[in-house]
Amino acid sequence: MTHFRSLILLLTVSLFSLNGLSQSCDSGLGYCDAGSDLPSKILIKGGTVVNAEHQEVADVYVEDGLIVAVRPNIKVADGVRVIDATGKFVMPGGIDPHTHLAMEFMGTETIDNFFTGQAAALAGGTTMHIDFVIPVDGSLSKGYEAYVEKAKLACMDYGFHMAITKWDDIVPKEMEIMVKEKGINSFKFFMAYKGSLMVSDDLLLEGLKKCKSLGALAMVHAENGDAVFEGQKRMIELGITGPEGHALSRPPVLEGEATARAIRLAAFVNAPLYVVHVMSTDAMEEIARAQKSGQRVIGEPVVSGLILDDSVLWDPDFITAAKFVMSPPIRALGHGKTLQAALSTGVLKLVGTDHCTFNSTQKSFGIDDFRKIPNGVNGLEERMHLVWDAMVESGQMSATDYVRVTSTECAKLFNIYPRKGAILAGSDADIIIFNPNATFHISAKSHHSRSDTNVYEGRSGKGKVEVTIAGGRIVWENEELKVVPGSGKYISMPPFNYLYHGIDKADARYLTSLKAPVNRIRPSL
Ligand code: URP
Ligand code: ZN
Ligand code: ZN
Fold first, then answer.
1. Which helix (H) or strand (E) element contains residue 260?
2. Using a 6 Å cutoff on CB, does residue 449 contact ligand 1?
3. What percent of the chain has pLDDT over 70?
4. Which of 52, 192, 366, 419 has the fewest CB atoms within 10 Å around its CB?
5. How far does Cα 98 stand from its chain's mean position?
6. DSSP secondary structure string for all residues of 133-201
7. Is 27 exposed, middle or buried (0-12, 13-18, 19+ CB in 10 A)?
């Protein structure tokens, strides 16, 4: 992996000096940079085209980055690259709603940047992601500029959410600029990470109101940060300093409490809410209850929460345990199954990864104190395979629902559908060809992330992304990546998604229900 990493870095530097159009290839490592000779006209023949609502056997014709036609028996002239997809699924490329590339966090920076993280994503069939901009000293504009710089390495399409970490007169004005001028339509509030990213309830309320006025989507990391702080102290006092202390210090009840609180505050101001990385049955049940009462609440499970259980945190080998440290923590056996069931019934709507990778050296910062282990796990490259295996192969979900939870719902929520999230004429040509009879294997030895570990190490399963087409270019084929740093596009996302439809009517109903102010007869004194 070290050799692989240096190759990527080297390639990155040389590509920039050559304006991204040079030709070089190291097929032994399964990585090439793409030149300008990639076919711009592609015909995908005979596959089963799967959209969120419908699937049918059809051909897909792509030209200059767009899907031009989807129908049976498309005839093309010479010079078109034809791919036979008989017996395979042709689906929209995955969209990961939750990543952290090149994020400065807990005294270090994630090991995957916008190039290596995205290269990994493409190898796993994800063609777009939405990353969280972290403000610099509370400044949204400085944070935005910093992420524009980081994203210059991008080799696939991406968008931004933005975190809100403080509140003053400037922040709401900057939120408005982000929405109206910068194409950001969602803001995240951390209810945990006391002393760094955590916000208070009054800030959350202000934020919810501002999001609503802008038509932006408020997102929460829902854990009670004060109680987590207390739980951490308790563990240290008990002499529990290892990775298991991480899970023990922030139990599901603290996630359930914060989820309920955020939901009730959002109800109070009648604002839509998106709960990121739902890791526990406790949090999921709060979301289900709110949805039943008609509240507009979206729950996002992440792959680690669906697939893993916390037994790994008790592993005697520090690195083996520490690589699983993320927040909210990976839960005890049983939570993952209830989250899978909630995903299959639509209580949870779309799957992210919270890809936030740190290598063994970085994880070792917490060798004597679990509070210093940088929080985060991988998943960008693995998400499409693991969700298929856990949900479709297991019989819990159809292929159409798979497309919905891995791609379409994200595009709809962040208001970029049907440009993204669909195989339709006019949509961006972000496409995967998926062989349901092939097998995937996961290992840090072969993955494309820069991390030296993988939380899904040794897993294999049925279904494999054989070809990834991003922006009309074949970027993954025959186990080989052809990617160009700097070729990824920023996708601007407009406000007022479907959750806002009719919300004004609910506000009007609320005002009527007040039956106030009462026009009182004043006492004549
Ligand atoms: O452990 C995690 N989740 N790291 C990334 C930051 C966050 O809370 O999303
Ligand atoms: Zn979070
Ligand atoms: Zn996150």
1. helix 252-268
2. no
3. 93
4. 419
5. 2
6. EPPBTTBHHHHHHHHHHHGGG-SSEEEEEEE----SSHHHHHHHHHHHHS---EEEEES-STTTTB--H
7. exposed
Task: Give the integer Cα–Cα distance in Å for 432 and 418.
Answer: 16
Q: Which residues contact 272 (CB under 8 A, 6 or more apart)?
A: 212, 217, 218, 266, 296, 297, 298, 497, 499, 500, 503
Say if residues 114 and 380 touch (Cβ distance below 8 Å): no
Residue 165: name the closest of 237, 104, 80 by CA.
104
Distance CA 223, CA 228 (A): 8
Q: Output the CA 454–ligand 2 centroid distance in Å.
A: 20
Quick one: tokens of 152? Answer: 């210059």
Residue 156 near residue 65 (C-beta atoms within 8 A): no
Instruction: For residue 440, give both structure tokens.
Output: 């995937």
Is 100 near ligand 1, meaning CB less than 6 Å away? yes
Tens-digit pLDDT profile for residues 333-360 = 999 999 999 999 999 999 999 999 999 9
- Evaluate: CB of 186 within 6 angstroms of ligand 1: no
Determine the Cα–Cα distance for residues 470 and 407; give it in Å rounded to an integer.
14
Q: What is the pLDDT of residues 178-215, one digit of tens each?
A: 999 999 999 999 999 999 999 999 999 999 999 999 99
Lookup result for tokens 């991988």: 378
Tell me how far apart the 2 most distant CA atoms of the chain are, in Å. Answer: 96
> Sign of the C-alpha dihedral, residues 306, 322, 286, 201?
negative
Alpha-carbon gap, residue 287 to 308, rounded angstroms: 21
Q: Collect all residues with Cβ–Cβ distance below 8 Å to 96 and sequence separation of at least 6.
A: 121, 126, 128, 129, 130, 352, 353, 355, 380, 383, 410
DSSP annotation of 93: P
Q: Which atom of ligand 1 is nearest to the CA of 221?
A: 8
Pairing mode of beta strands 126-133, 94-99 = parallel
- Whether 94 and 126 have beta carbons less than 8 Å apart is answered as yes
Identify the helix (H) or strand (E) that includes residue 435.
Answer: strand 431-441
Distance CA 79, CA 40 (A): 10
User: pLDDT tens-digit profile of 377-407?
Assistant: 999 999 999 999 999 999 999 999 999 999 9
Q: Which of 396, 398, 286, 404 is nearest to 350 (CA)?
A: 404
Say yes or no: CB of residue 375 within 6 Å of ligand 1: yes
Distance 497 CA to ligand 2 centre (A): 22
State the CATH class of domain 91-503.
alpha beta
For residue 448 and ligand 1, the question of a CB distance below 6 A is answered with no
Atom of ligand 1 nearest to the CA of 190: 8
Taking the centre of ligand 1 as the mean of its atom positions, its distance from the CA of residue 496, in whole angstroms, is 26
